[in-house]
Amino acid sequence: MNFGSQILGDINKSFWFPESASTFSDQVDSTYFLILWICIFFMVPITICLVYFSIRYWKRKGEPAESQVSHNTPLELAWSILPSFLLVWIFVKGALGFIDQQGAPDGSDTVGVKAYKWGWTFDYGNGVFHPELHILNEQPTKLTMRSSDVIHSLFIPAFRAKRDIVPGRFNDMWFNPKVASGKVSDADLQAALKDAKENNGGVFDRQKYQFTEDGYRFHDLYCTEYCGKDHSKMQTVVVVHENREDLNAWVKKYGGRQEGQTPADYGRLL
Fold it and tell me: Which domains does the chain have, with CATH numbers?
């Protein structure tokens, strides 16, 4: 737990940032709070001095100015050299976090991502495609991303992870989630499904109910590179499963025609 997070922990959870839900979010938040407190540390005395000097040395028009000291070598060296150590500290901390985010560790899960105007398709292998990103808690996950049209950018605020997706090439990003998604009760899920069927033409609105059609709570995933008319609608969700069995069961559910599933239902799912 870093110093800034200890002081602003409640703000971090409720106002300042989304929930801290990956190992990267701790790095990013601590760097942010480091810069924030340095800025506050310097801003307060500078503002006080600015107000004091404006009052202390205010003169009416025509009054002679007081004598001025034009040069102070120790003072100028101090305010030039000492802050440079803080700048180096900020750079090193930011660079270490950036380097850590570049290469996924061995044994990471891999999910393919296709971005297009205006949506997402996630490839789980063996012909399983879905518009939601489902991953395993406390397991590094690597996304191999491509665009079918223009530049997009995948951003998961709760993970503090963002990477552009450029047409004509593959871009990678990885993260390690640390907060599993909860599930709603069967009663709440059935009530939402019924409401969607009766009042929304059968379309399940995840943002309205704040859980997926399978009953999982989620983190938001956005495109943050303006990509045209419906850019603002290019969003989906990230579900973090508690264990491998639960994730595999979800993948299997969308991996082929299920027992008792009619051809019409399977076609609608596809």
Answer: 3-59+68-100 (no CATH), 109-181+218-256 (2.60.40.420)
